[in-house]
């Protein structure tokens, strides 16, 4: 029996976009350059899926002894944005195998496809351009951290996606992402289904902490659930 879903909200990096964790590596680099020793695993554990200012805040909070961190976060975030612009200019961005065909098949079956992300609009749109994806053709909408007041784990970006495509019941929404916070976002929005995918930032054990409906090896496994 296929699930009744009218909208799938996909995370970007690590879920639909394979950019080899360049954003989290850049977060790590910016924090390290400021004099704080954190690992990529620290960044993925405490920052994955979050708006990046918040990600830096949470990494520093959990991995250093700093008490007053707001000013240093602002400095690191500014450095991060500059470093990321350089990194993305030279980055070969790809999607995961089968993702574009999945988008086409979902849309043919009257299931809306929306991307959402903890990135700002400039970064997210830059990724779309590199992939040659366009709103209205490849996907139905893009929602970024710039579009809402509250980032993940709040459900604001999912509610925004629903508003854009005209879906009123969140039980008709499936949220999929590669990190625990994607699942928490889906639960916050009362989505009918939440799914973690093991192609990105976090492993099965980390994602399972949020109790998703499904954990997938790849996005193509959504076919068996929806099509």
From TrEMBL:
InterPro entries: HAD-like_hydrolase_sf (IPR050155), HAD-like_sf (IPR036412), HAD_2 (IPR041492), HAD_sf (IPR023214), PGP-like_dom2 (IPR023198), PhnX-like (IPR022468). It comes from the Bacteria. Keywords: Hydrolase. GO terms for biological process: DNA repair. One of its GO terms (molecular function) is phosphoglycolate phosphatase activity. Gene3D superfamilies: HAD superfamily/HAD-like, Putative phosphatase, domain 2. GO terms for cellular component: cytosol. This is Phosphonatase-like hydrolase.
């Amino acid at each position: 029996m296929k699930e009744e879903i009218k909208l799938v909200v996909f995370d970007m990096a690590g879920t639909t976009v394979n950019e080899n964790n360049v954003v989290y590596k850049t977060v790590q680099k910016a924090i390290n350059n400021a004099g704080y020793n954190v690992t990529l695993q620290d960044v993925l554990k405490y920052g994955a899926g979050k708006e990046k200012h918040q990600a830096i805040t949470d990494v520093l909070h959990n991995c250093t002894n700093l008490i007053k961190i707001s000013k240093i976060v602002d400095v690191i975030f500014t450095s991060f944005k500059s470093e990321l612009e350089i990194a993305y200019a030279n980055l070969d961005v790809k999607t995961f195998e089968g993702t574009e065909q999945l988008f086409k098949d979902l849309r043919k079956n009257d299931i809306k496809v929306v991307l959402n992300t903890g990135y700002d609009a400039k970064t997210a749109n830059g990724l779309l351009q590199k992939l040659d994806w366009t709103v209205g053709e490849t996907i139905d909408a893009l929602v970024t951290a710039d579009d809402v007041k509250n980032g993940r784990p709040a459900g604001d970006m999912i509610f925004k996606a629903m508003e854009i495509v005209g879906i009123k019941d969140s039980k008709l929404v499936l949220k999929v992402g590669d990190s625990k916070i994607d699942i928490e976002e889906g639960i916050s929005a009362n989505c009918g289904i939440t799914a973690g995918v093991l192609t990105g930032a976090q492993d099965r054990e980390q994602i399972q902490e949020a109790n998703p409906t499904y954990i997938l090896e790849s996005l193509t496994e959504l076919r068996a659930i929806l099509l």
